[in-house]
Queue: 2 jobs
Job 1
Amino acid sequence: MSNRLITGVTAVLLATAFGCGDSEDPSKGNNDNNANNVNNVNNVNNVNNVNNMNNVNNVNNVNNVNNSNNGNNSNNANNFVCTRIDSFYGQVGNDGEHDGGAPTVDGTLDFDANLSAVLAAVPATEDDENTPNVNEGEAVVDIDVSGALVTSTTFDAFANSTFWIQDQNLAMRVRLDDNATQDTVIKVGQKIDFKVTKVLNFAGIPQIALVEGVTVASEGNAVPYTEANGSTLTIDDFNKIVRVWGSITDAGTACGGSSFCFTLTHGGGSGATSTLRTSSEFIEMGDCVTFMGPVSAFPGPLAGGNPTVQVEQTNFDWLQENFPQ
């Protein structure tokens, strides 16, 4: 089976349904002639007989020595070793509408886009529910950003209003207010210029909430990322691009909205784990996945304390599942 990309809400689930029939199950009809029915008193070809000539074509008989699904088959899932999908870099270097750039492992940036000034303008506290007419978590500003590198976006039309940018000092998320839009098509690998007119502290997460005059200075730039497998992700990685791969080692728990949080165990014998947050309906315990996208945290770094640092599949293009071949 080939690699399968975990897609968004438009994904088509290709699965085989397995079930147990009841007394009305038509698959149980004509048992008098069923050579595999161990309860059939006329059955002379017992399923434990490895030389059973009538079973040589039965691909589901677990005792058949010619069974293509035999537990001793080298392609069996029990013998599958979870490995990185070397060719997978999420959006980086891809050819989607909002994808692009060139993946550069451990790359460094040597330009200041003025993101430090933007971060410094974000209020230190969130909105106070005691003052419903005032949002203490937002601030109106007038800050120019020049040459910020786009490292990730969300999906479809939302990509132009929610995306991640970085310079030599830090990485930051742009998430425009719900009723706000901007018309420039945003792509990974672009360097963009714009004016920030509003910033927001949302659950401790600093965000750019309103912008003006977005223009593209260049495209196809190198996008730095870190091979973080086996490493413990920290708040210092917040909003930066990492690649990790490993196995889903629990059944997941609900963690807000339609999302579930799973334990992603990575790094082989190192035993490193990260929280994977996703709204995908296809992720389950035992899956082998490769993730490449920005590191998130909840609450965000402005909240202080001990936030949960995680990888979050905000865009389904950031994660791909590896299957036995």
Job 2
Amino acid sequence: MSGSSSPRMGTALTRRSPSKPLLASASPRSADLAGRAVTLSDNVPTVFDAPLGSHHKLLGRWVTSMTPAAKRFTRREARIHIEQVFQNTVLEALEPVTMADLRVVILAAQEDRPPAAVVTCESLGQLELGWIETSEAPIPWRAAAYNALENTLGCALPVFAYQDLFDEISLYYWEGEATDEAARQCQIEMHGVDPDEVDENILPSALNARRPAWMLASNAGRSKELPAHLRRALAKLRAAHRAVRRLQPERNAWHFVGQEIYEYMPGAEDCSSLPPLTLVPVEQFAREIDDIARPGMEYGFMDVAGLCPLSEPGLIDPWFASLRVGVDFLIAAQELIQLEPTNS
């Protein structure tokens, strides 16, 4: 949740991803901090000899299980050492990811809940699609790649696709209707629009017609019609996606239960339910993206990619293993976007 309601703090090692910004910019972003960062909840004072928080103690046992300390630490030194070891391990794992800026936060225990590791996305806007959006490659090639990304990216990134946009616009303009006639009647009866003044350009068929040919799954080429290097890239993406889906939920850095977000992150319920990233091209759908993104720009987006409670130190290594599985998937997605098959 980008915004002041999120308990995250710190912006170490910032670097922007190549995403196109959303257009809803009339209101200032509630957080304009993008980059890879690792932080721990700041509810434990850092003054000399202050007690370590539950999350520091959990990570501390994990750190000492890997490299027993050669000396005794004060509490302040222990806190710094624990954070540095965990931060370095996370940043090493996330280093290959360039398509989005990811942040890992360790949240302190809440009442009867253990500490939790949260992966969030600090990027905002349209993901760069490279050759898929801008090249002169055959439409079946581009549509096959786009369709693969549309069907898989949600397992690791908070991202919305065209159908999500359509559903939001349907609620925004047409009270959930999806046909031209029903949408037109809604405009007249529910919104008081004169029958002669209904804007035909915002009816469902007009919205659908604006999709470029490469966005349509029906235009995706069959595997045997694609060049070998594109087939290999698609196969790698799908295999990596299956690996993420096979992860056990309780040990999965990329999984979350919605209710747990609200329990661990007070104020999250005030944020928009819309993810901060989109696969929908801004050039064709600027007005619609602006409309549905406005609440997120004002109150924060649902930017959580995963939330994993960590009840014991023995769960931290499996969490890291799952984090790397998701990174492998994102690397496969990056490679597909960077492929430029006409030059291969």
